[in-house]
Amino acid sequence: MTLDFSCKGRRAMRAAVVITAALAVLAPQAQAVIILDSTWRQEGGARGREWAGFAAHLRLAAEPQFKPVLAFATDGKTWGEASGTWIGNDAGHAYILTAAHIYTLPGKPDDYSVRGPDGQVHHADRLWIHPKWYGDTDTQTGFDIAILRLPEPLTNAGPQPSLYAGAGEAGQLVTFVGYGSRGIGSTGQQDQYYRGSDKAAAQGIAEQWKPMAARPRRDQDSGNYFGVYLPKEDGSIPNPYGGESKPASRLVGLLGSGDSGGSVWMPVGSGWTIVGINSSGDGSAKYGESSWFSRVSAHKDWISKIFPGAQFAD
Predict the structure, then answer these.
(1) Which of 142, 203, 229, 304 to pair with 247, CA 20 to 30 A apart?
(2) CA 145, 215, 18 angle in degrees (round to 5)?
């Protein structure tokens, strides 16, 4: 995917990343996440073997709770142009949660094909983009949500996941999963870190947390998002949100382009629940930069109206 590093008002010290479907065909397929240099080296990454340092993040994404996260392609072949998450079936369909910004408005169901966990390619027959999404990830991260419907159920994506309906994400260690570009904190995403087409996952503390604005307007920050920050191992870059300046785990990272539409997960009770949708990031995905995610809890009614079988957890 192509990254648009344009500086915008709401994130005054950071430039928003906009990933557009119109430019998707220009980029190669890619794997997910930007990770710590130290973890990359520990996992076998080195000059000439840049692709080899992501095993820990691939293992994390391969955990069974993340099986519903799926790859998108505009051509049915270049998997990793965007991502989505299966959230359940009704009698004749499967429903996929994704990001609105991967579509050029008004968007069409066949803009992307979806690859199931068994490798089967599916073609959607319906698309719902949130009616308050106007195409700006800077001011509208909180409405960066869409639902895609497949004309057949998915039966191999694991148990139906739950969606978070609470407000307790702030300060929690969350895990985000997708099929986007790879890289490390010192360089950002780079082509040489890519190999294969598996999903990967990274973690971060949900530090910048914003509730939905009371009266969201098109020209103002809508709220309803949280952000994670990538600290350097030695703590030498101040945390812009006032939190810790050292990594919370060896698996922390940022989004890469193509991760858009994938999902953010958090342990709740004895299980895992989806708390957000991968939306955007700043700069070039390096140390000291951030990624942002649309919170799903504020959209419970909208999701349930489209897919009454969606499961929610507080």
Answers:
(1) 142
(2) 35
Separation between Cα atoms, residue 58 and residue 66, nearest integer Å: 11
- Residue (of 285, 68, 81) closest to 180 by Cα position: 81
Q: Which residue has the tokens 């159920």?
A: 153
Q: Residue type at 119?
A: G
Of 79, 98, 56, which Cα lies nearest the Cα of 179?
79
The pLDDT of residue 2? 27
Mean pLDDT of 128-148: 95
The pLDDT of residue 27 is above 60? no
pTM value is: 0.89
Distance CA 153, CA 89 (A): 5
Q: How far apart are CA 134 and CA 143, in angstroms?
A: 9
Compute and round to an integer the Cα radius of gyration of the chain.
Answer: 18
Long-range pairs for 40-44 at CB < 8 Å and ≥24 separation? 40/184, 42/250
Residue 296, CA distances (Å) to 66, 254, 279 in order: 17, 19, 12
CATH number at residue 280: 2.40.10.10
- 149 three-class SS: strand
Pairing of strands 200-205, 188-189: unpaired
Structural domain tally of the chain? 1
Where in the sequence is the domain holding 222, given as residue range(s)? 3-313
Apex CA 253: angle with CA 269 and CA 207, to 5°? 60
pLDDT tens string 48-92 = 999 999 999 999 999 999 999 999 999 998 998 999 999 999 999
Reported as a single tens digit per residue, the pLDDT across 156-196 is 999 999 999 999 999 999 999 999 889 999 999 998 998 87
Q: Other C-beta atoms within 10 Å of 284: how many?
A: 17
Take residue 125 and report the two structure tokens written for it.
């027959």
The residue type of 136 is D
- Average pLDDT of span 267-278: 95
Please tell me the distance from the alpha carbon of residue 127 to that of residue 137, in angstroms, as a whole number.
Answer: 19
